[in-house]
Amino acid sequence: MNTNKKTARIAGFLYLIYLIISIFADVICRSPLIVFGDAAATAQNIMASEWQFRIGVMGDLLSAVLFLLTAWALYVLLKPVNKNLALLFLLLNLGGVAVQCFSDLNLYASLLLLSGADYLKVFQADQLQALAMLFINLRQNGFWICQIFFGAWLFPLGYLVFKSGFLPRILGIVLMIHCVAWLMTFLQFFLFPGYEVLTYTGPLGFIAEFGLTLWLLIMGAKEQKPASLEVG
Predict the structure, then answer these.
(1) Among 158, 150, 9, 161, CA closest to 73
(2) Calpha distance 72→69 (Å, rounded)
C-alpha cells in the first residue's frame, strides 16, 4: 500500500471511530438524561443512570482525543499541498478540542453536586439541583464556543482537499461551504439566544465530513505529487 493511501485510510478510520463515539456519547448516553429547563427531572435522571452519564462524559473525552488524532493524520496527508494551511487547521482543531475537554469539567461538577457528599448538606436539595443544571448549561455553552474552532478548521481543510489532486474536489467545496454554514449557526446561538438553533447544517455536515471519512477509508488517496505543486 502506498504512503498516501495508508495515511488516508488511517485518517478515515480515526474519523469514523470519532464520529461513532461522539454520537454514542451524546445521543445515546447523555441527551436522554438531560431535560433543559427542568433541574429536578434532570437530577433524578442522572442519579438513576449515573453510569450512563459517566460513560457519556468519558465518550466525549475519548472522541476529542480521536478528533485531534484525525486532524494530525490529515495534516500528514495534506501538508505537501501547503504546510502552513495544514498547520492552521491542525491548530484550530487543537483549540476546539481543548475547549471541549475543559467544558466537560462542568459535567463532572454537576455529578459532584448531586453526589450527596457531607460537605454539600449546607445546601437544600433544590439548590443543588439548580446548581447542577447551571453547570450542565455552562457545558452546553462551552460546546458552542468550541464550534468556532471546529467550524473554522473546515475551510483550510476543504481548500487543501480541493487543491490536493488526490482527493475529490467536490468534497473540498462542500467542506468550505459547511464551514460558512456552521459558523453562521455558531453566531446564531450567541447573538440570537431566544431562537432555536437552525439545523440546516446537519445534512450538509453529514455529506461533507462523513463523505470525506468514507472516501479516505475506502478509496484512500493516490500516490502522486499534489496538483498545487506540479510544474506546468
Answers:
(1) 9
(2) 5
In 3D space, the residue among 131, 181, 137, 133 whose CA is nearest the CA of residue 155 turns out to be 181
Distance CA 102, CA 143 (A): 10
Quick: pLDDT tens for 111-131: 999 998 899 989 999 999 999
Domain that includes residue 26, residue range:
3-226
The per-residue pLDDT for range 34-60, each reduced to its tens digit, is: 998 899 999 999 999 999 999 999 999
Whether the model pTM is above 0.85? yes
Number of separate domains in the chain: 1
Residue among 98, 101, 130 nearest 114 (CA): 130
In a domain, 232, yes or no: no
Q: Which three cell numbers stand for residue 199?
A: 439545523
**Domain membership flag for residue 145:** yes
Rounded Cα distance, 23 and 29, in Å: 9
> Does residue 231 belong to any structural domain of this protein?
no
CA angle in degrees (0–180, nearest 5) for 34-36-41? 60
The whole-angstrom separation of Cα 143 and Cα 149 is: 11
The answer to whether the beta carbons of residues 179 and 155 sit under 8 Å apart is yes
Q: How far is CA 39 from the centre of its chain?
A: 26
